[in-house]
Amino acid sequence: MNALHIKKGASSHSAYDLRNPLGDQRETHTLCVLVDNEAGVLARVIGLFSGRGYNIESLTVAETDHLGHRSRITIVTTGTPAVIEQIKAQLSRLVPVHQVNDLTVEGPAVSRELALIKVAGTGERRVEAMRLAEVFRAKVVDTTLESFVFELTGAPTKVDAFIELMRPLGVVEVARTGVAAIARGGFAPD
């Protein structure tokens, strides 16, 4: 008998079995991390993820406090509840990190993404691309006789849906900013 065999009913994705032995559901979380705006900080945060095999689905970073020299990193990641808690704890222990907030569990939040989608087509495909753009409120930011570049801002699911509908019409290229997110209401999360 083969030394490595799968029990009846066990998952064939052995990498997930090793990292998720209890079979917990994987969840997607949006984390906002307030850090010092200095050289090497982003590399340290990314190193934490890559060194432990955590995936980053989206990453945005920008200075948000010029006087305090602070930047905000927004990370969308997926893992079991235990892995998400571990990520948050490990991020909190990094020296340049001042605050870690999990917008997914701390209350209502707004998340948006900007995408530029280049679509090539003529004739009826071109007309259909314009109709879809109008429905999604995408703006035409560049046009030639053979192509459009659409700008779309919205929730990541909206951006995904627009891109999927445009694929059969001739998507040539897609550029996405990644998710920017913030808590709803008049106060910052603790």
TrEMBL record:
Keywords for this protein: Amino-acid biosynthesis, Branched-chain amino acid biosynthesis, Transferase
Listed pathway(s): Amino-acid biosynthesis; L-valine biosynthesis; L-valine from pyruvate: step 1/4; Amino-acid biosynthesis; L-isoleucine biosynthesis; L-isoleucine from 2-oxobutanoate: step 1/4
GO cellular component: cytosol
Entry superkingdom: Bacteria
SUPFAM superfamilies per UniProt: ACT-like
Chemical reaction(s) catalysed: 2 pyruvate + H(+) = (2S)-2-acetolactate + CO2
CDD domains xref list: ACT_AHAS
GO molecular function: acetolactate synthase activity; acetolactate synthase regulator activity
Gene3D superfamilies for the chain: 3.30.70.260, ACT-like. Chain A, domain 2
Record-linked Pfam families: ACT_AHAS_ss (PF22629), ALS_ss_C (PF10369)
InterPro entries: Acetalactate_synth_ssu, Acetolactate_synth/TF_NikR_C, Acetolactate_synth_ssu_C, ACT-like_dom_sf, ACT_dom, AHAS_ACT, AHAS_small-like_ACT
Record EC number: 2.2.1.6
A GO BP annotation: isoleucine biosynthetic process
Domain ACT residues, every copy: 30-105
Family assignment from sequence similarity: Belongs to the acetolactate synthase small subunit family.
Known partners and oligomeric status: Dimer of large and small chains.
Function summary: Catalyzes the conversion of 2 pyruvate molecules into acetolactate in the first common step of the biosynthetic pathway of the branched-amino acids such as leucine, isoleucine, and valine.
Name of the protein in question: Acetolactate synthase small subunit
Originating species: Amaricoccus solimangrovi
